[in-house]
Amino acid sequence: MPARPRALTPDRSARHLFGSEMRRLREAAGMSLEALAEITKFSKSSLARFETAESMIPPELPPMLDAAFGTDGIFGKLYALARKEIHPDQFRRRMELEARARVIREYACQIVPGLVQTEGYARAQFEKHNPKATPNEIDELWSARASRQVLLQADAAPDLFYILDEAVIRRRFGGPAVMRAQLARLIELTETPTTVVQVLPFDHGGHALVGGTLTLMTLDSGSQVAYEESITTGTLLEDKEAVAFLQRSYDLLTAHALSPGDSAALIRSTMEALPHEHHSRPFPREVDQVQL
């Protein structure tokens, strides 16, 4: 028995309305996904994701649908709205795309990227973000972060390329021991078969991505998406032109960042400059009598 089609929610966004109208008109025409795939040259699985708003609509699809269904440009108009809107549930969507990514490129301006954070560093960051968080809430946040990091242990783990602003390696979260462990982790990743870490030195000065975090993901389908993040919000971008613009800014930073070897040397010198934690001595036992 074939699986029931996933329920659609056209009232959620222009993208969801696009997908809902696509399915409605396809079914009204008695057309299967396979038949529509023959017309548009998109795969059946891709068309199914467009209908359920799981994937961003490619710009060449709307005129094909208008021609196939005789809809006089309605899909073109819906696409014009969909490509400009912020994706609903975008952080959840970002996690879904991250799990499908074959290559992840990230620029970080202040904080070590979540996929390569140590537990101590992550917990210290969570505590700084919300000093009122309970130990249980911190545990839950770390569990969520650790579940993302499982991605790196998969047989088909994505390739990771990181550009870290020098502030990332110098701004401390937790005590010196926590920061030392985190920097040691970054040194391990500076150049491996699947990871590259480069530091962008302060001397480079200003650039197009300063002040935020950018993640570029190349998915298993070959498409590219971008995720921009500020202090409390993030924006998922799947429009080709917008992603290409950000990709160029990232590529320029790659050209100005230190080589992996020089980056490892700078991270190591930063780690060696960290103070050593000294445990306070216990107070001496009180004596019963002080002799003069």
UniProtKB/TrEMBL annotation:
The cross-references to Gene3D superfamilies, in alphabetical order and at most eight, read: lambda repressor-like DNA-binding domains (1.10.260.40)
Q: Which InterPro entries match?
A: Cro/C1-type_HTH (IPR001387), DUF5753 (IPR043917), Lambda_DNA-bd_dom_sf (IPR010982)
Q: Where is the HTH cro/C1-type domain positioned along the sequence?
A: 22-61
Q: What is this protein called?
A: Helix-turn-helix transcriptional regulator
State the organism of origin: Streptomyces milbemycinicus
